[in-house]
Every structure is written in C-alpha cells, then in structure tokens.
Amino acid sequence: MGNLLEHMGVEKDRIHFSWISSAEATKFVDVVKEISDKVRALGPNTKLKKIYS
Amino acid sequence: MKYCIDPSICLKLLKDKCGTCEEVCPTNAIDYSQTETELTIQAGSVIFAPGFKPFDPSRFDNYQYANYANVVTSMEFERILSATGPTGGHVTTLPKLPAKPKKKADKLLAEKRKDPKKIAWFQCVGSRDINKCDNAYCSSVCCMYAVKEAVIAKEHAGDDLECSIFFMDMRTPGKEFEKYYENAKSSYGINFIRSRVHSVTEDPDSLDLNINYVDEFGQMVSDTYDMIVLSIGLEIPDETREFAKKIGIDISEGGFAKTSSFEPVSTSRDGIHVAGVFNSPKDIPESVLDANAAASAAGDSLSHVRDTLTQVPEKVEEINVVGERPRIGVFICDCGSNIKGVVDCEAVTEYAKSLPYVDFAYESMFACSQDAQDKMVEYIKEKNLNRIVVAACTPKTHEPLFQETLSNSGLNKYLFEMTNIRNHNSWVHKNNPDIATQKAKDLVRMAVAKSALAEPLAEEKINLNDTIMVVGGGIAGLSAAKSLAMQGYETHIIEKKDILGGEARKIYKTAQGESVQDELDKLIDSVITNDNIKVHLNTTLDSVDGFVGNFRSTLTENGQPIELEYGAAVLATGAKGYEPTEYGYGSDDRIMTSLGLDALFVESSEKLDAVKSAVFIQCVGSREPDRPYCSRVCCTHSIDNAIELKERNPETDVYILYRDIRAYGERELLYKKARELGVIFIRYSTDDKPVVQVEKETLTIKVTDHVLGKPLEIEADLLTLASALIPRRDEQLANFFKVPLNDEGFFVEKHAKLGPAEFATDGVYVCGSGHYPKPLNEAVTQGRASASRLLTLLAKKDSLFTSGTIATIDFENCCSCGVCISICPYSAPDFQNEGRFAGKADINPVLCKGCGLCVASCRSGAIHLRGFDTNQILTQIFALDEVV
Amino acid sequence: MSENNVKIVSFLCNWCSYGAADLAGVSRLEYPADIRVIRIPCSGRMSPKFILSALREGADAVWVSG
C-alpha cells in the first residue's frame, strides 16, 4: 500500500500502520506524536486531494 | 461506587455548619437526613470474601519504615510505578513527599530528591516470620510481585538502575512465572541475593540507606542503596477474625478460613463459602478461580429454587423505522466537568443542530445517569426520533447502557451511535480547549453522518443444547461434572482409561493430611450415582464439529462408535508424572518417584520398615531448560512424605535436596514442622547437581553442602525423585476445539489473570493440571470454577443471541471464490450445499465475530458488515472534509 | 489548512488501539489533537479503498492501528 501510494506521488509518511495493545496507552501517545510530527513536517496533503470545481 | 459522608467528622452533622457539599452538588444527591439503617436479607447461601490487609511494617524497628524516607512498602512502590500515581510513573526517591511541597521543611528535604541508581527489595516482610510477627505462613505473592516491580522499575528508569532482591527462597510456582523470573535475571540483569538483611541505617545527609548482610558464602557485606522496598505480606485483619468467630466459621492460626482439600471453598459452617485471600494467601487468577468455585458451591445447594425470584423486565415493542427519513437525536454529555471543563459543549450542541437530518440536540450533565436516560426515552417519543447519537465517553463501557435505553423506548438498539469526546478528546487535549471543541464538532459530525445510514439489525437466537461433555475423569473433571449435574444439567464424562480418578489414584495424602483414596472414592461414588451424569470409560474422542451451544462429536466407547450432541465442553485432561532419565532412575528399585513412594505408603509396604536413611531430590525435570516451569506440587509433596517417614520412624534420617523450597501459603507450616522433626534440607545449585552412585548395599548421594560449601556423601536406602508434572500435549484435542497450547504443552486460558477457567473459544472451558500443574485442592477449585463459568452460559439458554454487527453475504454478487472461507479465523463462512444459492458462500451468524476480514477480502464486494458497512465508514471519511 | 492543523484519519481496532486510546484518556496523557478516530471492529476490516478515499477527501495522512 505504501509503495503504491508512493508510486502515485503520495509521500510514504502519509500512511502509517501500527499495532498497539489496549494496555499500551503510552505507546499509543508516542505513536500519535511521531505520526503527527512527521505529517506536520510534510505539510498539508495536496497530491491526491479531490479538487472542487 | 458512590460517595458517602463520614458522620464522625462532618461539620454539618456534628455542628450544623458548612453544608458546602449540598450547595455544590449538581445533582442534589446530598441528603443529610439519611442515617444508618439495618437491612435484613434472606439468603440461601453466603459467600465470604473479605480479603486481606497489607502487612504494616512500622512495628519493625530494624527496617525503620516509619522513620526513613526512602524505605517504602511494595504497595507504595506499585503506586510509584503507576502512570496515574503520585510521581506519574517516574521512579524517584523520597516518594512520600508531595510532588510540589508547600511546607518549608519538606521543601528542604525535596532538594535531596534524586533518580535512584540502586534499589533493593527485602522479601518476607511480615511473612514466614514468627520472630518479629506471628505470621508463620508464606504470603505466596510477594516473590513474583517483587520480580515484576524490579523489571518495571528498570523499564521505567533504564539500564542505569541496579535492582537487587534479597530473598530466602524464590517462590515463583505460578503459570509462566518461572520463565519471567529467569528472564528477569538474564535479560534485565536483576540481582538475586539469597540473604535476609538484618538492619538498615540511614545516612543523615544524603538519606542513602546502608545495609549489612551475610552473603551465600558466609561473608559479611556492606552496601548502600538509594531506596529499599519492603515486600510486605498479606494479613487477615482482626476485624475479619472476629467476624469469622461471630458467624461461626473455623479459622487457622494465620487467620485463614479452614477448608478441606475436596471442598476447598466451603467453610466449616454449612452454606457459608469463601473466596480469595481469606481462604489462603493467593494471586489474582487463584482468587478469580476461588470466586467462580464459590459461586458453583453456593449454586449447587440452591439449584432447586433457581429462577424462583426472577423478575422479567417489560419488553417494549420495537418500532419499525425502515424507509423513514432519518430523524437524528444528538445527546452531548458534559460528564460533569470532565468534558465541559475543556470542550464548549453548548457550542457543540448548537453545531449538532445544524447538521443534516438532526432534528434534536440536547446537552446533559451526565448522559448516563438514570434521570438523563429517562429523559432520553421521553425525547425519543416526543420528537419521534429514529436514530440516536451520544457524544460522551467510550462506547466500550457505555454503549450497552445506551442501547438498552433505545430498546426501552422502542428503537432497535443498532440505531445508536456513540462518539468519544472524553477519553479521546477532553482528557487528552485539556490545554487546548479551542482545538478540543473543534475536534468534538468533527467527531459529532462524523458520528451523525454514520448514524444516518444506520439500519435496524436483527439478532438471531442461538439454540443452546444444555448437555455438557467433560473430557477427562480426574479430580478436576469429576468436580466440574458433579457441580454441573447437581445444578440439573446432563453431563457426560469421557475417560480414556477404564477407571475414574486420574492421577489422584496414585496419591497417598493431601497437604492437609486427608486420605486421598477415601475422599476420591466418595467423590466417584457421588458422581456415578448421580442420574444426570453418564460416565463413558475406555472412550476416545474422534471428532468435534459445531460451535457454542451446538457441538457434535463422534466417540469410540469400548470399540463402538457413538454420537454425542452437547452445548459446551470442559477440557480436564490433566498432566502426568515425568519418568526421570536422571539420578539412576530405573536402575535400582530403591530409586523411585514421589508417586512411587506414595504407592508404598498406600499399600503400607514392608519395604518402608527397613528404611534407615531416605533422600529426596527436588526439581527433577522441572525448572530445566527443556521444561522451564515449576511443577508447583513437588516441594510440598516431598515435605509431606518426609514428615510421614519421620512419623513412622523418628530414627530415620531424612534429607531433602532442593533448589528453592516453594511451600507457598500455609504449606510453609509443613516446612517448619519437617525441620522441627529433624528433616535435613540441603540446597544444591544447577551447576553442581547431586550425584547418585548405586551400590549393592546402599545408594550414595553426593551433594555440596550449601552452608559449609563442602562436599557431603549421604548413604541412603531410599531415594525419591520429585519428578515434574508434564502436560499431555494433546494437539489433536486442541485442534478439535480450536484452543491454544503454550510452548510446554499446557492449555492457554482466555486470560491469564481474569479468565483462568475458560478458553477464548466460546463454550469451551478448562480445569485441572492440563492448564498448569496444581495440587488437589486447586484442581477441585478450578473444576468447580469451570462449571461455574459454564453455568453462566447455560443460564442464558433462552436469551442467547448473536451479535447484530456481523457479516452477511449478498448471494447475487458472490462469485464462489472461497477467499472468505479460507481467511476467516472463526470458520464462519462456508459454501451452501443446497437451495437456490447452492455453491455460494454463506456466513454462520453464531460463529461470526464481526471482525470484517472477509468483507475486506471479498473481491466481488458481496459481503457487508452490518453496523460497520463500507458506506458507513466512507461517510465518516467524507464528513471529515466538510468545511466548518 | 495550515501547517499547524493537519488531519490524520485514524482507523483504530475496537479491541486494541481504541482501548489504548481510551486508556490514554483515563491516564490523562496528552497528545496532538490531529487525529480523527474511526472505530472499526478489527484491523481486518480495513480496505485500501478507505485509505485512498481518506486522502482524496483531504486527509493529510492515514493511520491504521490494530
């Protein structure tokens, strides 16, 4: 999936997969922070977005 | 849980002043006129589960818990490790000081606060001690929790932290515990020091703690630690002892309820049952088993009056909303200040009103409170709403409650949608109220969009066959079958051998001194004379088909095939004694296993009279790399047999060669008694195991004495090997019922702590040593516990429904590719054999867990997941984009 | 959409990550408010279609967590 999106021109940091057990609240927060930082660095998504005419 | 006022300090009640709580309570719940009232409850059975109190170490002057700031109890250390504790999970010294001290003296002290580099745990504080306190018993749980605390401390503080545990015997006989202990040594580098520390002194400047102790080699060692954790034991408080006396139940010296090995949850008084630590010191899974077993014992005697006091709630006729335009009602919960304190709930409510199909939006202080629920029913009727969205806390806990409210107002419960603006929003973005409000609006919009597409779903009734199959006719299986039969259910016991009783047939006495054979005969007699029980001896299980409520098996009984239909199964296949290959076993008939010695006791063999010197070797085949678990029963068994030998002939020399004596709970008293009788305990280590030489006249056992460090030679005419209990590793049985086995071949239960007598597979239960090695009383408890869990299933006989949120197949679009059949972890889809759509896949709603794997894998788009259908998920995605 | 306000569509498994998110709330942990949670019964429910449509509908990123 990541490769396909990259092929389509979408940066691979725009898609994330993870596995967190229901007891791992701190891991959850760490993952959110990590993803958020990466996506903020990329800025808004423009590549695949539907354009309203 | 509700709050109440302590009348001994309340100013309003004492002096008619204050009254602040009444003013601030938003729900007018305060009522000063309430007084203590006496309630009389008519009960047929009583279950007594008063629990314990952690030992208070303040009275020990040698550890100075009351005076030194860095000496803490293990309970306090649990809080230090907790993310919600006073230090937020940060391991720090001076934990008893407030995080931001206000007093001047505290502020000065707080400057000495640091991240500890060295922490020590002292085991057996308030346990196994009749010197400084009266608790002779072992508290059973402290070794394991200390190892756990040390591991978590290292996980929190990093590798710089040095953790040392000072212990007498490391007692980790629970399931998966031994591996955890070994891992703590090898992967976490935790030091285990076999020594009892005499006393602690404090450095007045640094507040560091100095200790002196004698190490394993007899050397005096001085060391300094930043922090000391006292592993305090479990104690039965005086009030409980007095209460026990008042209601007339016998207690032991340690204050625990006296129970027998064959009725381990029943007290000396008929009709009063007991569960938890008050029964004996125990861990969580054993407490859960106790509780389940006590419920079974209480139910056994009350089965004739079952369902006589049941009140059936009035059922509201369901309103048909199919084809109607969605009229959505949105309820925004303030959760007191939990949500409202951050999110502008008023704005969210106003915003909700503007959303498509929303006819009504309402903000309530506590949406889950009874009056708010009643109001919700009123509004649904008044505004003729046909979809409900609640924005509050988590659906994982509160969805069923709101769904019930919907049902009460005549709406199908699947017309409900919940969104989480507390756990996922107000609680985690409390410093950004604007963003949190915006997020709440987004979440409400997404939920409303999904809700508009919600359809009423049907739940199908599951037919439940209330016949039960118990696999295995040992102690655990018999106990389970007996309870089920007493509660009126037809139970079939499947036993491979030609006799009931299992491994218990080979045991002489229980740890409490009861004759196993007499008690076993009584149990078997009560089983075979019970009309509800059918015993199938010489029987093997050949196949298992079906699912919860509807199993079907082929059995071979005495060579003849028979069919059995049943609703649920208990797997009680047990374990067997390991046949040692070490210590010369098999080469001489003076060398035997513990069960071999029991056989001599049972037949009162003359061979025993000639025994002048007897040696026991522990951990034969247990706690070894091949079998990294503790067999739990062998220490007590050998001590018991050693006492038996000593009592038969006090002149006999008896030696027990051991690694750790794991006489948990009140079994410790047997260990004490054995030492008093002159049984000699010699510890050996795995790199210097005893060596056995078989000679004509005697057996010579060479071992290194742990006190002197010198080699010893013991001449013996009886050598007993405390051999491991090994599981049957019945992979076929595991496959039949789709239940897992662990690395060693024991069954894996649903939940290690909270689901110890059942499998994750619905309708299949586990008990006995097939789950993990256990003594007789624990096998009976687990047998009863599995019956109890099974009874909760049978109690739902007329009200067992499938979930509505399951997958369905649109047969017209199915291309019969079979991907869903191969991919489903629950074997729910299968091809239809007959009818108009023969050859197409269909889904068994009973087996479907609604995971959606087949939906995502269906190439034809023929499978739909009700409640989470593709259009419902897509509409949530689309709702994201709308410009606010 | 400004750089400081991204939207991450998060598909969380009801039993695993959704529970972790609940617990994060109970523990009062804090994290960026960028995620918008869609509860799914299991990560097996995920389909590439959802990821593509999320991006198409203007999500800045997609997160799938089991």
Descriptive account of the structure:
The complex is a heterotrimer of chains A (53), B (884) and C (66). With 53 residues, chain A is mostly helical. Chain A has two helices and one strand. With 884 residues, chain B is an alpha/beta fold. Among the domains of chain B are: 1-40, no CATH class; 55-95 and 113-234, FAD/NAD(P)-binding domain (3-Layer(bba) Sandwich); 328-452, Rossmann fold (3-Layer(aba) Sandwich), CATH 3.40.50; 577-726, FAD/NAD(P)-binding domain; 807-881, Alpha-Beta Plaits, CATH 3.30.70.20. Chain B has a five-stranded parallel sheet with strand order 3-10-4-5-6. In chain B, strands 19-18-17-23-34 form a five-stranded parallel sheet, with helices on one face. In chain B, helix 17 runs parallel beside helix 18. Chain C is built from two helices and three strands. Chain C has helices at 17-26, 48-56; strands at 8-13, 35-40, 61-65. The interface between A and C is large, with 37 and 39 residues. Strand 1 of chain A pairs parallel with strand 3 (61-65) of chain C.
Radius of gyration of chain B: 32 Å
Q: The CATH topology of one domain in chain B, please?
A: FAD/NAD(P)-binding domain
The largest β sheet of chain B comes out as: 5 strands, parallel
How many β-strands of chain B, per DSSP? 38
Helix and strand layout, with pairings?
The complex is a heterotrimer of chains A (53), B (884) and C (66).
Chain A: H1 2-7, E1 15-18, H2 25-42
Chain B: H1 11-15, H2 20-24, E1 46-48, E2 53-54, E3 71-73, H3 74-81, H4 104-110, E4 118-125, H5 142-157, E5 162-167, H6 177-186, E6 191-194, E7 199-202, E8 209-214, E9 220-225, E10 227-232, E11 234-235, H7 238-247, E12 272-274, H8 284-302, E13 328-333, H9 345-353, E14 358-364, H10 370-382, E15 387-392, H11 395-408, E16 416-420, H12 422-426, H13 433-452, E17 468-471, H14 475-486, E18 491-494, H15 516-528, E19 533-536, E20 539-547, E21 550-557, E22 560-566, E23 568-571, E24 575-577, E25 591-593, H16 594-602, E26 613-620, H17 634-648, E27 653-658, H18 668-676, E28 680-683, E29 691-694, E30 699-704, E31 711-716, E32 718-723, E33 725-727, H19 731-737, E34 764-766, H20 776-794, E35 807-809, H21 819-823, E36 829-831, E37 841-843, H22 853-857, E38 863-865, H23 870-881
Parallel strand pairs in B: 1-12, 3-10, 4-5, 4-10, 5-6, 13-14, 13-15, 15-16, 17-18, 17-23, 18-19, 23-34, 25-32, 26-27, 26-32, 27-28
Antiparallel strand pairs in B: 2-11, 7-8, 8-9, 20-21, 21-22, 24-33, 29-30, 30-31, 35-38, 36-37
Chain C: E1 8-13, H1 17-26, E2 35-40, H2 48-56, E3 61-65
Parallel strand pairs in C: 1-2, 1-3
